Amino acid sequence: xxxxxxxxxxxxxxxxxxxxxxxxxxxxxxxxxxxxxxxxxxxxxxxxxxxxxxxxxxxxxxxxxxxxxxxxxxxxxxxxxxxxxxxxxxxxxxxxxxxxxxxxxxxxxxxxxxxxxxxxxxxxxxxxxxxxxxxxxxxxxxxxxxxxxxxxxxxxxxxxxxxxxxxxxxxxxxxxxxxxxxxxxxxxxxxxxxxxxxxxxxxxxxxxxxxxxxxxxxxxxxxxxxxxxxxxxxxxxxxxxxxxxxxxxxxxxxxxxxxxxxxxxxxxxxxxxxxxxxxxxxxxxxxxxxxxxxxxxxxxxxxxxxxxxxxxxxxxxxxxxxxxxxxxxxxxxxxxxxxxxxxxxxxxxxxxxxxxxxxxxxxxxxxxxxxxxxxxxxxxxxxxxxxxxxxxxxxxxxxxxxxxxxxxxxxxxxxxxxxxxxxxxxxxxxxxxxxx
Length: 436
Description:
By secondary structure, the chain is an alpha+beta fold. It contains 15 helices and nine strands. The chain has two domains: 145 residues, no CATH class; 221 residues, no CATH class. The relative contact order is 0.10.
């Protein structure tokens, strides 16, 4: 218990150091500190593993007994089997008494690990007290009724009415509990991987001069500005937002990189074999990524390669069949779209449309541009190493992490700016002068 408490504290300290890092050198120092850490960094989860395998064994035995009773009843005439069956049924019939203190015991172990415990001087006394308190549940008559109803209901639900046996229900619950324990232990054992991903992400941000931006209230502003964010009918949120600066040969500009999440809520009606109809609510989650920046060279134009998003306004078709197959174009008027979509820009946008999934390029009436798509996050590059190999991870982090896809998109937007600049720049007027 003390060991696991130390491990939890050490990991929390490492995570705090990662979040406090402001430079690549800080991240390198954190990795080296992990490599040479004086304290323990791996949990001792033997008791929980024993519980996990014990639940799996109980589940297997209960399912075997239920199978033999249901399909091989009378064909098994073994004295050993009969004795084992009676022993299992004896233990199972009293499971509503020993399950509560068993659960309380393992909860007490976790509470001790986290430093949350009863005001008693010694750990064994605290664990024993919580175990006894859990056992007191067995003195409540209503608990036993609820327990057996739960097991029977679980068997009925999972087998679709094929069995109401509490033995089957117990086996299913034991399997679910063992799976939950396995997931929890796996997460604890592999804590280095998510921390490594966080280090790599921060290193990418530092290397590319990207700074986090507060997202509170921004989604409402974006909804008022861009049709792109009017998606879903339940939840809309910015999962992440970063600000950076691009420096090109002709134009330099500030931009924001975002990760957008939205949810569609729908109702599904199903009918079973008995003709009974049931209705349930389903939530479909979607993610979009993109860039936001000022674009003073055009306004009120929307290009969509996403069949689920249509813009308002006059439709425009260019002279390029390739472009027309990729994008549906709408604008305040056709002349605005024609001026913006020069042959060179059509070619550039066609390349973007082919490389991005469900791409949308929207220029608002106020001259703000949004480039959005369904592809992977622009920051989703995976490290080759992690904290399981600190020496190699340090070498990887110490180098320059370039976000290749982000750079390609920014270069393309710079190209659109450069080509649009000439289209919208006012030409100087010449005045003819005659001499007498």
